[in-house]
TrEMBL record:
The keyword Nuclease does not apply. GO terms for molecular function: ubiquitin-protein transferase activity. This is Uncharacterized protein. The keyword Repeat applies. It comes from Polarella glacialis. One of its GO terms (biological process) is protein K6-linked ubiquitination. ANK repeats lie at residues 24-56, 57-89. It comes from the Eukaryota. Keywords: ANK repeat, Repeat.
Amino acid sequence: AGMSVLDHAQEHMELRSVIACVYQVNTELQFAARNNNIDGVRSAIEAGANLNTRDDDGFTALMWAAVHQSLDMVQLVIRHGANPNLLDEHGNLIEGLNPDHMACGESIVEILGANERLLAASRAGLWDQLDRELRLGAWVNVRDETRRIALMWAGRQGASAAVTSLVGKNGDLEARDAVGWYTIHF
């Protein structure tokens, strides 16, 4: 049968609780990024923060990393899926960036290139190239258009040494692709 008024009220309260938790972790991310606190940013990411959330000034965590010229924070947020541009909500380059800040943009390009090369090498079975791309800043759990990570491609191709290596580098065994398959399914 259907839900009672009490059931709907309970569901509504649960949703409000979830929304409050999401808001809190996003606020923690924004505060940490604004204050150049990489450990706080890392903690917020682990808690599920949305890396593309903008603060009251319209800045994302990546934008604050560029302002602070923190290449480590740039790498961290890009590797975890932050939108890689430094544009405000109107599509303009954020104000106040000087050439030193733009060096972060070069780092973003390098990391994104490493991510793309990591996935291409994984799809092609070029396992000797993975370590190099990871050293250049690629994220071990970066996803392709089918939501597969390098670990899934290694599993699909039966490359046990590559699977072992990627798991040792924190490859996500719980990751699912667009169809819902885990690495173990391959």
